[in-house]
Amino acid sequence: MPATHHRTVMVRGLEVFYRESGPPDAPVLLLLHGYPTSSHMFRHLIPALADTYRVIAPDHIGFGRSSATTVDEFEYTFDALADVTRAFLSELGVAEYTVYVQDYGAPIAWRLALADPAAVEGAISQNGNAYEDGFVPEFWEPIWAYGADPSEQNEQNLRPDSGTPVLAVWGRNDEIFDAAGAKAFLRDAPAARVELIDAGHFLLESHLDDVARLIRDWRGGF
């Protein structure tokens, strides 16, 4: 089994911790974790795919082992987190990649795709919404009331590029983002592959082999 390396790199004066495995010249699979977790959630997926891919999984700023500065020193917005991730990839010499997102990692990835569509060779979404469909109201209404800005521009900024291959692999029993969030990708990416698994928000903990198999099968199609 390929070794997983734990590394750090300085990006914009911030320390970014990341896990990396696989051949340095292999296609890059970028894993962006959700909330409230870190790259630790990918600890089993990384070695499962590292024979084929250069797998890179950073901790977002404020998460895991990366820098966790005060709000006076860093603006904790998805725009800022995407900017750090973009600089992180540049520092590692990564120009093209397939991105795997979960939860909090999704709005970061969509911003990366909007900023440089040609860099994103494919997108895999594991319970990471790009639409309002699938947001369970009981969980989200307090958050929307506190901080949402439902402008048309903000909504458009989250829509994926229709020309990008998309795999939505979803825990159908998620109590935060239900299956409608996976099916919504078909609106703008009719060729998207939607796989609903009998699991919850952290399906890698229970269905790692299924997810790894789906990625290999999906990626082999283009």
From TrEMBL:
Residues 27-139 form the AB hydrolase-1 domain. It holds the Pfam family Abhydrolase_1. Gene3D superfamilies: alpha/beta hydrolase (3.40.50.1820). This is AB hydrolase-1 domain-containing protein.
